[in-house]
Design goal:
CATH architecture of the largest domain: 2-Layer Sandwich
Radius of gyration: 29 Å
Keywords: Aminoacyl-tRNA synthetase, ATP-binding, Cytoplasm, Ligase, Magnesium, Metal-binding, Nucleotide-binding, Protein biosynthesis
Number of strands: 18
Protein name: Lysine--tRNA ligase
EC number: 6.1.1.6
Strand content: 15-25%
Structural class: alpha+beta
Strand order of the largest sheet: 6-10-11-18-17-16-15-14
CATH superfamily of the largest domain: Bira Bifunctional Protein, Domain 2
InterPro entries: Aa-tRNA-synt_II, aa-tRNA-synth_II, aa-tRNA-synth_II/BPL/LPL, Lys-tRNA-ligase_II, Lys-tRNA-ligase_II_N, Lys-tRNA-synth_II_C, NA-bd_OB-fold, NA-bd_OB_tRNA
Family: Belongs to the class-II aminoacyl-tRNA synthetase family.
Helix content: 25-40%
């Protein structure tokens, strides 16, 4: 459909001088028979590979070798005048200098190079040399125009000044900010290292489970709801991977994991995004102590990507992931920090009295276990610095975890904390279908009493348990938080390529 002339005039008025000039150059290329948006091109080398292979040689040594390569990338700088020009070419591995001589490439190719703008994609075939200053450079014999940039890059290639812009226009952030580019490369390597550890060291099988669920379960969170027209039913975007993965343990798969997107209709801050990436793993015959060992292995495998000695720094605070992680019961941790002892059995009213004395707020539907957890979150969690497994969560807040054999008020569950932040949640899985239904029913009552994040009853999951699930250890790790920790990223938006953003006015 043809664009409305008024709209065309409006867009023309908004277009700045640089953009008009770039469009004029695009038309000039067309007039010269050159496609401004290019065709297939086959580079033979990346900038980083050339640097690794040839930077060790002197200028004379390289001149004698006559090494010819073809490179391609975005031109991010250009300088020179007359019949000689220099450019910096950026590809996915880094940048390399280009030295273009009119008497070498010919008049037409040199004209193309001189008319090219910062941001354009170009291909060069030529010899690897070193300049008098010792900089590894390509001296091309051939120039190929690949794609015209109709908008200028951020001012002087110094990056984005508007902090929000780097999240809204991640492509500009990746062009302008090499730290950000490298962080996302590291993210991919971290996930690859986690997969390698689970696949090769622990013999897990990676699987895929549905994103659309008939009921929202596996975690305490508000779901996103959608509607399936053909079936005329509401469905939920998954808030966790757990319940489908445990069905696979029932089916005999033994050790399974999934790394996938989950969705929670909750607030956003530097540690929370409505969609995020989670790792969940389940292993038959593990208990939660085995899962602690598994978790340490995962964190160390991931940390080696950024620090072979497993020592990192996050926001100015050192963390040693090579040392054995600390382990402490939640009740003991609370007693250490506050002197309050929750080991004696307390009624809900007694627990509320303790909460009142220590200015710990609570909801009307809360029981003793909820208040214990609130004490931990207020007085203990922010103080944890070294990697620490906090275990023994109250049964009221752990509807899918196995009861502790010695004290049924608590479960065989742990969370991993580092520098006051939670990085993992795990437990010996509840495999008693009768107990599981009772827990689901208690959660359903909590929802009636006002807890919007309480889980509902998943009848099919209970049915699966009735066929028998072996003792199983399960683990959940927020991949985004793990990447934040290992790459020293202050916000989850810095490790998500396209974080959820409020629409611009």
């Amino acid at each position: 459909m043809a664009q409305d002339p008024k709209q065309q005039r409006k867009q023309a008025r908004q277009m700045n001088d640089q953009m008009r000039v770039r469009r004029e150059k695009m038309n000039d290329l067309l007039a010269e028979g050159i496609d401004p948006f290019g065709h297939e091109f086959k580079p033979t080398a990346l900038a980083a590979e050339l640097d690794q292979k040839y930077d060790q040689f002197s200028k004379d040594e390289l001149e004698n070798k006559h090494i010819e390569v073809t490179v391609a990338g975005r031109m991010i700088a250009k300088r020179g005048s007359g019949k000689v020009g220099f450019a910096d070419l950026l590809d996915r591995s880094g940048k390399i200098q280009i030295y273009v001589r009119k008497d070498v490439v010919g008049e037409q190719a040199y004209h193309i190079f001189k008319r090219a703008d910062i941001g354009d994609f170009l291909g060069f075939t030529g010899e690897v040399i070193k300049t008098d200053m010792g900089q590894l450079t390509i001296r091309p014999t051939k120039v190929t125009f690949l794609s015209k940039a109709l908008r200028p890059l951020p001012e002087k290639y110094h990056g984005l000044q508007n902090k929000e812009q780097k999240y809204r226009q991640r492509y500009l952030d990746l062009i302008s900010n090499r730290t950000s580019f490298d962080r996302f490369q590291q993210r991919a390597q971290i996930i690859k290292a986690v997969r390698s550890y689970l696949d090769n060291d622990l013999d897990f099988t990676e699987v895929e489970t549905p994103v659309l669920h008939s009921s929202a379960g596996g975690a305490s969170a508000r779901p996103f709801i959608t509607h399936h027209n053909a079936l005329d039913i509401d469905l939920y975007l998954r808030i966790a991977l757990e319940l489908h993965l445990k069905r696979l343990i029932v089916g005999g798969m033994g050790r399974v994991y999934e790394i996938g997107r989950v969705f929670r209709n909750e607030g956003m801050d530097k540690e929370h995004n409505p969609e995020f990436t989670e790792l969940e793993s389940y292993a038959a015959y593990y208990d939660f102590y085995d899962v602690m060992d598994e978790t340490e292995g995962i964190f160390r495998s991931a940390a080696k990507v950024v620090s072979p000695d497993l020592k990192i720094e996050y926001q100015g605070q050192p963390v040693d992931l090579g040392q054995p992680f600390k382990r402490i019961h939640m009740v003991d941790a609370i007693k250490e920090k506050t002197g309050v002892d929750f080991w004696p059995k307390l009624s809900t009213e007694q627990a509320r009295q303790l909460a009142d004395q220590h200015q710990v707020s609570y909801e009307n539907y809360w029981q003793t276990g909820h208040i214990i957890n609130a004490f931990f979150e207020k007085f203990v969690e922010p103080t944890i610095t070294d990697p620490t497994f906090v275990y023994g969560h109250p049964i009221e807040i752990s509807p899918l975890a196995k009861k502790n054999a010695d004290d049924a008020r608590f479960t065989d569950r742990f969370e991993l904390y580092i520098l006051g932040n939670e990085y993992a949640n795990a437990f010996s899985e509840l495999n008693d279908p009768i107990d599981q239904r009772q827990r689901f029913e208690a959660q359903a009552q909590e929802r009636v009493d006002g807890n919007e994040e309480a889980q509902g009853i998943d009848d099919d999951y209970v049915k699966a348990l009735e066929y028998g699930m072996p003792p199983t250890g399960g683990l959940g790790i927020g991949i985004d938080r793990l990447v934040m920790l290992l790459t020293d990223a202050p916000s989850i938006r810095d490790v998500l390529l396209f974080p959820t953003m409020r629409p611009e006015d």
